[in-house]
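Contributing new records

If you add data, match the layout below exactly. Sequence lines come first and carry their own label; structure lines follow with theirs. Keep one chain per record. Anything else will be rejected by the validation script.
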Amino acid sequence: MDLTLRIWRQDGPSDRGHLQTYEVSDISPDMSFLEMLDVLNEQLNAKGEEPIAFDSDCREGICGMCGLMISGHAHGPEKTTTCQLHMRSFKDGDTITVEPWRADAFPIIKDLVVDRSSFDRIIQAGGFISVNTGSAPEANAAPVPKQKADRAFQSAECIGCGACVAACPNASAMLFMGAKVTHLGELPQGQPERWARVVSMVSQHDHEGFGGCTNTGACSVACPKGIPQDVISTLNKDLRTAMRQGG
């Protein structure tokens, strides 16, 4: 495959960025998108040019580090992570535009790399859960209804990649936060701090500069793990309950 790539280049957070055009050839359809970028970087290195900075780690679709906006779609045209997106999703001769996540709360570090530590601070704001340490309890000591267990597991699939923020016209992180709140809110272990947790996390979310949710649904559509939009409803219900209780 021969492709034209329009890639965002930016030297640093305070520098002015621009789209730069590159041509790549003989790209195998079986390559992942990140492998294709590796090939381009090898070519740039060989010519003595600055390689393109992009973020990745596991390359197995489980860590969320690799997020890119590809031709206007978070993670690209398939419902998967960028590292699991293969070049067979594109056609020979395509022009592909590659940009970083766009959100004030995700400042650009360099090129396609953004600082997503705002997500970490939201999680930190949620604090810990009250559990007894020591030997592991018997597995069935705390009964959990299957429906709640399934929903908790589904919410726990969120990998914190930030696609929901990048896809949202308001750059809201409510799907991410809703997944984290729902995960613990459905389990007995998450009940002691349930109301304080949601208030603290929402406060940190707003402090970081994320936008509000207007229920466009773009977040859930873009989520590579299929986190359902109803976790936002759970978040809002928990927040209202917490505020009524003086949280």
